[in-house]
Amino acid sequence: MIPRRPETVTRRRVGAPVLARLLAGAALVALSAPFTVTAPVTAAPAIRCTTPSQQLLPEVPWTHRRLAPQRVWPLTRGDGVLVAVVDTGVDGAVPQLAGRVRRGVDVLTRGAFADDDCYGHGTFVAGIIAAQPAPGTGMVGLAPGARILPVRQAYGPTDGTTSGLARAIRAAVDGGASVINVSASSFFPSDELRQAVEYAAEQDVLVVAAVANEAQQGNPTAYPAAYPEVLAVGAIGPDGRRSEFSEVGSYLDLVAPGVDVVSLSRGGIGHLVDSGTSYATPFVAATAALVRSYHPNLTAAQVKRRLERTADHPGGKLPDPQVGWGVVNPYQAVTAILAEEHTRLAAPAGQPPIPPVAPPGGGPDHRSSAIEFSVTAAVLAGLVALLAYLIPLGTRRDWRSVGDSGDAPARDGRAG
């Protein structure tokens, strides 16, 4: 059995001292996994490094069976896209990430890099995005062609601040990322954090952020996920339902697998399993990387809208406060033709074209664009109505083909 990350063994509730700080408006940031914040710190804390795993998962994880990224890999694997992981750092020496991780930036320590990770949270997140295929395991990143820019904004699960998170987002933009994964949350709005998100949007960078895991502890609004420019992500389980811990609200955009997720351990060759919106978020960030690689002319706002429009929509009014626009769909996100983008998106030079055939599965894809279906139905209905009108009229007027008697068909104002 693949070991779980230690913090998911017991889900702790927010204690009275922490609640007092929250009510006082303390600028706390917690990693969006099923545990809660404690007091912020002003210096590097004495974080105990997590124990590396040496155990590989041989089979394909349920998350990949659900999202089926292999369908889109013949078109794009995310090549040419730099994804920033704003987190606890990323262990660039892990075999399945070797050569894919830049030195990065540590916003907590001036001049330091972020390509190591004592706690392991950032490495787990990065593996979901860009882990390389390896012998003996079915675990691979959703966008294995992408590269990772680690930006450290915390050393462990509870020491982040909104100011550090804001600096990290700006550092990710300045570092050249076109997609930023933020698997951390603050429960209070901040001008500094909002301005950092606006800076990313102005530079055409898409921020993808977790909605946090406090649905059963009051469901407080999570930032930066709640800012309108951000693609906010919640979690579902293997049954397709919203995870009980995943927060809800009008700002929720998409959901992705976030229960029993398998990814990489720091400091070893093995894997771990964990749950949280922290781990749903990189599935969406990786899908954004696939889209930005295949459709490089789309803006960040268009990529956000494309992921929403092409999701596996729930029944009822959209967006749904429980699951947003639905479950992210990597294949549809890359291949769908959206009328609102005003033009058919051709494949970039050197890329295979979007296939005009139905995807694997033995039948048409029932999740095709609703707009395309509506337009086709309207055209067919118009043709049927026209024929219903013209055929009886032509019969009454004894229409004949030109050449039968040397004369053209009879016409008048109604038939013309």
UniProtKB/TrEMBL annotation:
Localization, UniProt: Cell membrane
Region (Disordered): 347-368
UniProt KW Signal keyword: yes
One Pfam short name: Peptidase_S8
Catalytic residue positions: D87, H121, S278
Composition bias, Pro residues: 350-362
Top-level taxon of origin: Bacteria
Keywords, alphabetical: Cell membrane, Hydrolase, Membrane, Protease, Serine protease, Signal, Transmembrane, Transmembrane helix
Keyword Hydrolase included in the entry's annotation: yes
GO molecular function: peptidase activity
Residues annotated as transmembrane: 373-391
Signal peptide: 1-39
Gene3D superfamilies: Peptidase S8/S53 domain
Main location: membrane
Domain Peptidase S8/S53 residue range list: 78-326
GO biological process terms on file: proteolysis
Membrane topology reported for the UniProt record: Single-pass membrane protein
Database matches in InterPro entries: Peptidase_S8/S53_dom, Peptidase_S8/S53_dom_sf, Peptidase_S8_His-AS, Peptidase_S8_Ser-AS, Peptidase_S8_subtilisin-like, Peptidase_S8_subtilisin-rel, T7SS_pept_S8A_mycosin
Sequence similarity: Belongs to the peptidase S8 family.
NCBIfam families per UniProt: T7SS_mycosin (TIGR03921)
Protein name: Type VII secretion-associated serine protease mycosin
Species assigned in the record: Micromonospora echinofusca
Lineage: Bacteria, Bacillati, Actinomycetota, Actinomycetes, Micromonosporales
